[in-house]
Amino acid sequence: MGGGEADDPQNLRRIAAEAYDYDHDARWADYWSNVLIPPHMSSRNDVVNHFKHKFYQRYIDPELTVEPMVTNSSSQPAKPSVPPPQSSSSTSTTNTRQRSSGSSSRTTSGASANPPPSSMSMRWDQRTIQFSVNAWILVVAVLAIFPLVPKNLSNRAYRLSLLGTVCSSLYSLYSSYGKPRAWNVQALQVWFQSVVVTKDFIYSIYCLSFITSNLCLKFALIPILCRSLEHVAKFLRRNFSRSTLYRKYLEQGCIWVESNTTTLNIVSSQAEIGIGFLLVISLLSPQRNIVQAFMYWQLLKLMYNAPTTGSYHQSAWAKIGRTVNPLIQSYAPFLNTPISAVQKWWFR
């Protein structure tokens, strides 16, 4: 009957997954930015649809079955038809040819037993490098914020964790987007527009703004810790799930991190906004840096509008507005004019 396929639960789930509005879900942009695939594959519709279904399975409907992605679409050759009976001489000739073809096929199969590195092995190498760098960042960042560490060592670990995040972000950008097609203004502009709203680009600028500053804000390491923790937990769970050491000591923590990525992003966005206000307050101190404060607020404006971070920042700013606006109306109405001017610049 024709209605059997329509009533198939998996078919209905696949239809729902294809009809889902991924463009207006901030989690999809964050998920897609962390998928490491070669640039020539990221433009293929079948690859994008495969990862959309995996996203839908992870965040919307865990019962959706996602079939493995087939990267080799070459079809098998058709079997030759059976030849008619021949004489004994032709039969011996045919057998000789079959034996020679059999030996050549065995030689071919033996040669193909060691294929050249595929895109999957390249992706594995990229993920392994990212895991190694982010695990190092996590250890160094914890060392930087640990209260019993000497100040000199703590400050050095602080800058090393920021520098490691810059290297990790730039490597991820290069792996996902490559380099510009040409070194002219137009090609650079096209490449820059494609990467400027990604999370990796935002974090590279975020870390550079603190590496070049004399002001040492350990509070700025909270987003770095959340980012590294998420990368490390994902890699450990996907590649060491059968390890006894992982199951005994790390499994529960990795499961918690993967199931609370939204919470980590909310914490990161609140910390980033709080750092902006700390930089404004620091303008009253001898360590003031007007350029850094202005550039950081430009970065906050980018975070507010970028698809990967916008929903979390918009939610945090809305919560701040609901708390602060009644107090300003009651006790400091003279601040309405400067706040309105700032809001015009912010939404411009």
From TrEMBL:
UniProt keyword annotation of Lyase present: no
Matching PANTHER family: TRANSMEMBRANE PROTEIN 33
Pfam families membership: TMEM33_Pom33 (PF03661)
Membrane topology, from the record: Multi-pass membrane protein
Entry keywords, A to Z: Membrane, Transmembrane, Transmembrane helix
Listed name of the protein: Transmembrane protein 33 homolog
Compartment(s) of residence: Membrane
Superkingdom of origin: Eukaryota
Organism: Erythranthe guttata (Yellow monkey flower)
One CC-aspect GO term: membrane
Family: Belongs to the PER33/POM33 family.
BP GO annotations: endoplasmic reticulum tubular network organization; membrane organization
Location (main, coarse): membrane
Composition-biased stretches (Low complexity): 87-113
Chain segments carrying region Disordered: 70-121
Regions crossing the membrane: 131-150, 201-226
InterPro entries reported for this sequence: PER33/POM33_regulator, TMEM33/Pom33
